[in-house]
């Protein structure tokens, strides 16, 4: 039994609203968010799987948390990579619930996290990269695990992506935070042709020390990459080889990793 608490705090850490419960907590926040506001999930148990909804327009995120989590409400440029409905208005429904064992062990997309943030957080899966185009939110690595597959344009939501700023050694790391068993990877490369280029080959490195190369093609459809089932805690997309094309702009709209949590 985990004691959970959800809080909304302002920029000075004053409490705007709060709720708590055993294994489940929800919170109706009647407040228009202001810059500096943050949503905090506190738990007396660490290293647990939870359903976390920081906003009703963002939806449920099935995540693994290793400590208390602070989610900073985005404003300005950081907001345009998300639906305009997210965090808007003066009435918000939040919740957190400890996951059941059957939910934890079910075969699913282990990469999905619409509540990922552009900072180090004790909340997984978590995406990072060694480059993001011009540091803009619409090209952040976290966009590639938000569940939005739209890939026929680029820029503001729903066409946010991971952009590599034309950098040949670009790499993106996906950290699961604990051991998982994975056997399939799916890539949705951005296909805003002729603006975009595409990768004709990519390499995926795994935490177990192995790596595998995959040929890709010019397509807006899913690239399905089967792998031998392996136990990993992270993977890295790297050695991205561009096609011979006038455009210098390949990008990734979404990565999905299918498998189950190691128990």
Q: Would you give an account of this structure?
A:
The chain contains one helix and 17 strands. The chain is mainly β and 263 residues long. The chain has two domains: 3-105, no CATH class; 108-261, Galactose-binding domain-like (Jelly Rolls), CATH 2.60.120.260. Strands 9, 11, 12, 13, 14, 15, 16 and 17 form an eight-stranded antiparallel beta sheet that branches. A five-stranded antiparallel beta sheet has the order 3-8-5-6-10, with no helix packed on it. A four-stranded antiparallel beta sheet has the order 2-1-4-7, with no helix packed on it. It is globular and about 55 Å long.
- Count up the domains: 2
The third-level CATH topology of the largest domain is: Jelly Rolls
Number of strands: 17
Radius of gyration: 19 Å
- What would CATH call the homologous superfamily of the largest domain? Galactose-binding domain-like
The biggest beta sheet is recorded as: 8 strands, antiparallel
Structural class call reads: mainly beta
Helical fraction equals under 10%
| Mass-distribution shape | globular
- CATH architecture heading of the largest domain: Sandwich
Mean of residue pLDDT values: 97
